[in-house]
Design brief:
The chain is of the alpha+beta class and 395 residues long. Helix content is 36%, strand content 20%. The longest helix has 22 residues.
């Protein structure tokens, strides 16, 4: 089970919520372990988890009929489901079926086939004994018109609850930690492979292709694709082009992947040829910044305090004009899980929160340098998931 059950139930108690209805792709996966292709790729698709506070009642998954094949191949811990729409899989009497086909056939036989997601969701709530109780609705991925229709059908008003599930997600479970650690390992290994093949004249596109192939070969899916060379390395969101690396140029990887739906996000810097004094001094300054921020992280410290310490260290180490709106973010089933590490983020750190602490520096006519480390908050400090030492790769 992925989700932090006790934390979620505590938050439901605090809000007085009798039911939670998850609607966003990330929150559906978080609560059920079920990943819907159409939900992630076709944003109008509706998929839900109905989660009751009363633990004597079983949660219910609401999915399109077209996702029953996925459910048969990758079962959820939630056994009860409602389905809607149609999806044709011909049955001509063949008996030589695989285990997945047998399970697919079984699930199709018990599937409801409601006309639309509203009918299926209403049935799920009523079957769990809904009777004028308080429902928290993850408002992030459900159309406003459908919200109004549901409220009218149930004679109630939903409470916005996307933030409730996000708050639960901030503290990771053991399974989440395993996935995150593996994801960052895949990414760093792939960057290292790509950097090992860089030569003068290679394009950003070619570098990213090597990185991506390595990620896929080892079981991940590339997601974040910022690779910039020379002055283009200074574009925060540099998308890969046919720009070629030249002697003395910076190569900046700010990339990530997903492994079993959990993200990585990390940055590495290389220089083709001899780095300049400015390369070395500025890189050392941003490195000292992440190090200083990480060094004060422990339960009870505020995210805003990590921001202040990180910024102070970068400025004192050699970039007095350094300015950033944030120096990190939580990471998990979303690449930006809350909280952001900003001057106004007064969220106290807790054990098993996982952060990317980062200090990018971008300058016109120069390029970009960046250090980004993934770190877990422990009882007494931190566990670094990123590989150390942090240094420039000289090619």
């Amino acid at each position: 089970m992925l989700f932090n059950k006790n934390r979620l139930l505590k938050l439901m108690d605090e809000k007085g919520l009798d039911f939670l209805v998850a609607s966003s792709p990330e929150n559906v996966v978080y609560l059920s372990g079920f990943w819907s292709l159409s939900h992630w790729q076709l944003k109008a698709t509706q998929t839900y988890v109905v989660y009751p506070r009363d633990q004597k009642k079983e949660p219910i998954l609401v999915i399109p009929q077209s996702d029953i094949d996925i459910l048969s191949d990758n079962p959820s811990w939630i056994k009860s489901f409602r389905s809607f729409g149609t999806c044709i899989m011909e049955d001509t009497g063949n008996t030589n079926l695989t285990e997945q086909e047998v399970e697919y056939k079984r699930l199709k036989a018990i599937a409801n086939g409601f006309a639309d997601p509203m009918e299926a969701l209403l049935d799920a709530l009523k079957s769990l004994g809904y009777s004028n109780q308080k429902i928290g609705l993850d408002e992030r991925n459900i159309p406003y018109v459908l919200v109004r229709q549901l409220e009218e059908a149930l004679k109630t008003k939903f409470e916005p609850a996307h933030g409730v599930i996000q708050t639960a997600r901030m503290v990771k479970t053991p399974e989440e930690l395993v996935r995150l650690k593996h994801s960052i390992g895949l990414t760093e290994s792939a960057i290292k492979t790509a950097m090992g093949e860089i030569k003068e004249g290679m394009t950003e596109r070619e570098m990213f292709a090597i990185y991506s192939q390595e990620i896929v070969r080892n079981g991940g899916i590339p997601t974040l694709n910022v690779v910039g060379v020379n002055e283009h390395s200074g574009s925060a969101n540099a998308q890969v082009t046919d720009r070629k690396i030249k002697k003395g140029g910076i190569i900046r990887f700010d990339v990530g992947c997903t492994y079993k739906h959990y993200h990585s996000d990390t940055a590495k810097i290389a220089i083709l040829g001899e780095p300049t004094k400015k390369h070395l001094e500025y890189f050392d300054a941003v490195r000292r910044g992440t190090e200083a921020g990480i060094n004060i992280m422990k339960p009870g410290v505020l995210a805003s305090e990590v921001y202040e310490e990180t910024m102070k260290a970068v400025k004192e180490a050699g970039i007095p004009h350094y300015t950033r709106h944030h120096v990190g973010h939580g990471i998990g089933i979303e690449v930006y899980d809350p909280p952001l590490v900003t001057p106004t983020a007064h969220t106290a750190l807790e054990e098993n929160m996982v952060f990317c602490i980062e200090t990018p520096y971008y300058e016109f006519g120069f390029g970009g340098l960046q250090v980004e480390e993934v770190v877990r908050v422990t009882k007494e400090g931190t566990q670094i998931y990123s590989e150390r030492p942090i240094e420039i790769t000289i090619i």
